[in-house]
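Exam revision sheet. Question 4 asks you to relate a sequence to its structure. Input first:
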Amino acid sequence: MGVTSRFGAGSGGDGMKTLIIALALCGAAVLALEAQATTDEVARDARWQELKEVIFEGRPVQDGSGLVVLEAPARALDAALVPVTIRMTDAAGVTGVYLVIDENPAPLAAHIAFGPGADPRAVSLRVRVNQYTRMHAVAETADGQLHETMVFVKAAGGCSAPVGADEAASLAEIGRMKLRLGSEFAPGAPVEAQLMIRHPNFSGMQMDQLTRMYTPMRFVQTVDIAYDGTPVLHVDGDISLSTDPVIGFAFTPKGPGEMTVVVRDSDGAVFEDSFPLPPSGS
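Answer key, structure tokens:
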């Protein structure tokens, strides 16, 4: 007795054709994704080449994987508060470091110059990321050489994210600072520290939730940190720094003294504070 398919005569051939078409479409989709990925990488390479020419004025930038390590989340939990740490595997001769976020409206997020009082082995920041992007750390050595490393970060919308309050509230405590030590204060040994600065760091891309108007740009432009008159860090910032910037660094004190901080913003305001070290009661 013959067996009749419930799909009707010839259904086996039609099913095979459907399978072949489906596989072909899947293959085409994979090829399209691969082609798009290749196109994206080419565009990212071109973007970095362009940024290098502008930021470093044609100076050669070499592979720095043996000197500098850039730590950032592959996928950020909050695009407006992305933690970044730059570590030097060999800090001898390192005079500064640049942090570049390729696809941000202001790609040069920060330039940090290490003073004679600094321990340049590590520095950390919180930044905004506007869209999926490559992020580069470029260390500069005393002989003028530039050493670069890169990570890719998946995040979007950080530059336009609201600061969490209306403009007046955001400005109420502007310029207030705190300093915390992350390791024991010991003369002659590196001491880890974290500086917190109250500042909305308006990017010009945020909308005031009350007025529905864009809040004018106003950001931390420079930060100077010194210990007993000896420079520790000079930071040039921009709108890519997060609201209420946080700077992690290390310094080597010769003994008890005072850390002074001077912050200047893009509106010309100057904020100053000082912190006796070691803190009282420690």
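Marking note for examiners. The longest strand covers residues 133-141.
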